């Protein structure tokens, strides 16, 4: 377990195995912080991805990848901070790593905040879903209300037409009754020709009223059927769109709902994970230079010195080789044998050029 935490801290096991117990415990503590931060990242990412994919195995798989990524980043951050004799130099090299640690802390803490405040978030989401449901019903109703209102107006007109016709029939009835009683019309008591004429007019109007009632009732039934059909279409459309509203509980919706809750509890949770994430860096900055740091600095210094020596030797070797080459070529340039050979070769080349020029001119002529 101790060596595993050394590996998590990015420490050199060979150096640590020869260091004091306190140095071993310090590096193991740093490695443990890195490891458990990665575990928390795995849990946080797994939950966040579960809210997205709604599948346990997918969430575990991608959560494990995310946890390993955070583990590698934290291990890199901790292992690259070197103890120096200047505190400001140490702080300077730690600032970019602290910024990265803050970003990682935000990413890790947010999904866990979603889980911790799940009940409160569900309440906010329920209120939003209810509001969305009402808005959705109103928006869908706007598509059907004009048609329904028009049908209702037509039904009312048909009823008014029957009512008006009934009034006319009643008026004709009163007319022929008063004619028979002698209280109106000819003012003669009895059923004379005028009474008969008015009675026939009333009977014809009554028959028309009966036909009008049958016709309008059928029209009213048809229009009420259309209203019922529109109502069914409205209900079906509301029913089809409701699952979209019911499914409004994804990752972004939950984050927005979390932002509507009081910020102080979430802020303290963020501070907790920020402290966990930056703990290895802060501990390295605050801890004095120990045995492990001195040995590591000695090894790195030895390597640096060896590399500098090798570079210096290569530079000197190149310069010496250049001087020797210049001297060799200078000596060769002064040899008579080489001069005679070069003169002979130059003569042959000039002869070949003259012959080639002669043959070319001869072909042209």
UniProtKB/TrEMBL annotation:
The keyword Acetylation does not apply. Pfam families: DUF4407. The chain crosses the membrane at residues 28-50, 56-73, 267-287. The keyword Protein biosynthesis does not apply. Keywords: Coiled coil, Membrane, Transmembrane, Transmembrane helix. Signal peptide: none annotated. Residues 148-226 form a coiled coil. This is DUF4407 domain-containing protein. The lineage of its organism: Bacteria, Pseudomonadati, Bacteroidota, Flavobacteriia, Flavobacteriales.
């Amino acid at each position: 377990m101790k060596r595993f935490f050394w590996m998590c801290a990015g420490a050199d096991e060979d150096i640590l195995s020869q260091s004091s117990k306190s140095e071993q415990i310090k590096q193991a503590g740093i490695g443990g912080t890195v490891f458990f931060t990665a575990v928390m990242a795995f849990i946080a990412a797994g939950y966040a991805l579960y809210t997205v994919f709604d599948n346990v195995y997918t969430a575990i798989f991608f959560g494990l990848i995310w946890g390993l990524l955070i583990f590698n980043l934290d291990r890199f951050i901790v292992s690259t901070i070197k103890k120096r004799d200047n505190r400001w130099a140490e702080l300077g090299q730690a600032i970019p790593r602290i910024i990265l640690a803050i970003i990682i802390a935000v990413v890790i803490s947010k999904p866990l905040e979603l889980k911790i405040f799940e009940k409160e978030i569900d309440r906010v989401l329920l209120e939003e879903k209810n509001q969305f449901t009402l808005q959705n019903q109103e928006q869908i109703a706007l598509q059907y209300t004009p048609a329904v209102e028009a049908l209702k107006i037509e039904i009312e007109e048909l009823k008014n037409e029957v009512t008006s016709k009934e009034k006319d029939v009643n008026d004709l009835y009163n007319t022929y009754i008063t004619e028979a009683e002698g209280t109106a019309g000819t003012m003669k008591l009895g059923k004379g020709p005028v009474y008969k004429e008015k009675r026939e007019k009333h009977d014809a109007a009554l028959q028309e009223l009966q036909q009008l009632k049958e016709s309008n009732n059928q029209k009213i039934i048809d229009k009420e059927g259309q209203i019922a059909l529109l109502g069914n279409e409205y209900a079906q459309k509301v029913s089809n769109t409701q699952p979209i509203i019911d499914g409004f509980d994804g990752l972004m919706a939950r984050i927005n709902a979390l932002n509507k809750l009081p910020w102080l509890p979430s802020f303290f949770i963020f501070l907790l994970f920020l402290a966990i994430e930056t703990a290895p860096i802060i501990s390295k900055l605050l801890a004095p230079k120990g045995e492990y740091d001195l040995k590591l600095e000695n090894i790195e210094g030895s390597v640096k010195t060896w590399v500098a020596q090798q570079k210096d030797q290569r530079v000197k070797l190149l310069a010496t080789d250049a001087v020797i080459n210049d001297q060799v070529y200078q000596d060769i340039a002064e040899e008579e044998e080489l001069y005679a050979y070069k003169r002979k070769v130059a003569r042959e080349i000039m002869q070949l050029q003259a012959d080639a020029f002669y043959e070319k001119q001869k072909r042209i002529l």
